[in-house]
Amino acid sequence: MEAERKDSQPLDGVRIVDLTSIVLGPLATLTLAGMGAEVIKIEASEGDNVRLAGSALHDDMGHVFLHGNRGKRSVVLNLKHHAARDALLRLIGQADVFLCNVRPAAMRRLGLGPDVLKQTNPRLIQVTACGYGSRGPRADLPAYDDLIQGAVAIPELMQRHTGGEPAYVPLSFVDRVAGLHVVYAITTALYARERSGLGQFVEVPMFESAAHFVLADHLAGESFVPALGSSGYDRLLSTHRRPYRTADGYLCVLIYNDKHWRAFFTAIGQSEMFERDLRFSTQRSRSINIHEVYGFVAGVMASRTTAEWRDLLNTIDIPNQVPATLDALMDDPQLRASGLIGEEQHPTEGRLRTLGSPTYWNGTPSPTLSATPRLGEHTREVLKGLGYSEQELEILVQEGAVEVASTDK
User: Fold this and answer.
1) CB 286 within 8 A of CB 279
2) DSSP 8-state assignment for residue 372
3) C-alpha 318: how far from chain center
4) Of 32, 296, 313, 314, which sits 20 to 30 A from 228 (CA to CA)?
């Protein structure tokens, strides 16, 4: 019994039917698969669009797809075909969670609206990852990461910070923020079902998720009614908040509290400045004058090499970090030791670097995730598990209702 508990995963026995694509939904179900959930990924015949994105050995196994879909099984269903819809409903009847990023109106047209799914499985947790919340006027608009970054003022914030042109954050920022909202929504809904015995419908909109992220930092003076000042958190927006240029490179430095500032001024031979210059004397004053404060540090940092600054700052306990390159990050000893970066032999894609979970659980070892699936790799296996005979499967394939993986790799 003890061995059973030790080897079990937090989400063992939870089956998730995943009708999502690109980054948001796949990140959520990848995370849940890493907690032990069974994830069945439903794809159209052309596959998830992101299969074609980025570096690839084979066209339909791009690096973004590879890193977002380990631990899942791929089933190809043509949901415009009635037999494929029947198969999906049969699968949903045995599932705990159905995650979808198809707009609700389109799902209703397919005969797969929330009421139909609830009738099929009253314990089902239905989660829709959408662009905008259904209670607002933009509910039916399409949404992509770049568009939502624009909608939540990220390009403006980037422009104010750099003093240049409006720009996107060079990450799938909104998709990944909203994807993590999906994770806690699903796990919390599963917990709620343990109490009530009933499933429910949960909506996770990209716009509201990202707006919450942005406004928590940048409401600033507009937090108060009437406003005490404008929006925008000055510390984050200062053009000097960046790695400081040293005599021979760059260094990230955060001189944060009074102890740090006293030690810093003493180390650079200006010990009297902490008391004399009121801009630096208190946390509140530094916050109000943050642009000048960061500007002063930027000017001083150029006077020594990176190595000289590191030696000095480490001696006086001021946090600092040499900014990494992407190439260096891939071989970071911390990430290797913690298991975030590993390697595996993929059946068709060769030797791959893999990304594990950033969390560590001392009572439940991380599961070994199966290799990222080829398109339709598990169609036969999953449908047979639903009771379809080999003959019935052949008919579904011939009718174009389902597809199975090609064998030419």
Assistant:
1) yes
2) P
3) 31
4) 296
Confidence at 333, pLDDT banded by 50, 70, 90: very high
Assign residue 186 a region: left if phi > 0, alpha if psi is -120 to 50, beta otherwise?
alpha
What's this model's pTM, rounded to 2 decimal places? Answer: 0.94
Contacts for 313 with CB less than 8 Å, ≥ 6 apart: 253, 319, 320
The mean of the pLDDT values for the chain is 95
Question: pLDDT for 218-274, tens place per residue?
Answer: 999 999 999 999 999 999 999 999 999 999 999 999 999 999 999 999 999 999 999
Q: How far is it, in rounded angstroms, from Cα 175 to Cα 251? A: 30
Cα–Cα dist 185/204, whole Å: 8
- What the chain holds in terms of domains, given with CATH numbers, is 2-213+332-403 (3.40.50.10540), 244-322 (3.30.1540.10)
Q: What is the distance of C-alpha 334 from the center of its chain? A: 21
CA distance 234 to 218: 9
Parallel, antiparallel, or unpaired: how do β-strands 341-346 and 350-355 relate? antiparallel
- Mean local confidence (pLDDT), 95-103: 96
Task: Return the bridge partners of 184, or none.
Answer: none
Alpha carbon 220 to its chain centroid, in Å, reads 26
Closest CA to 282 of 259, 263, 251: 259
Residues 313 and 252: their CA atoms lie apart, in Å, by 11
CB count, 10 Å around CB of 158? Answer: 18
Q: What is the C-alpha separation between 151 and 105, in angstroms, rounded? A: 23
Tell me, rounded to whole angstroms, the distance of Cα 365 from its chain centroid: 22
Q: How far is CA 385 from the centre of its chain?
A: 31
For residue 34, give both structure tokens.
């890493």
Tokens describing residue 329:
């990050």
Report how far residue 171's alpha carbon sits from residue 169's, in angstroms, rounded to the nearest whole number.
Answer: 6
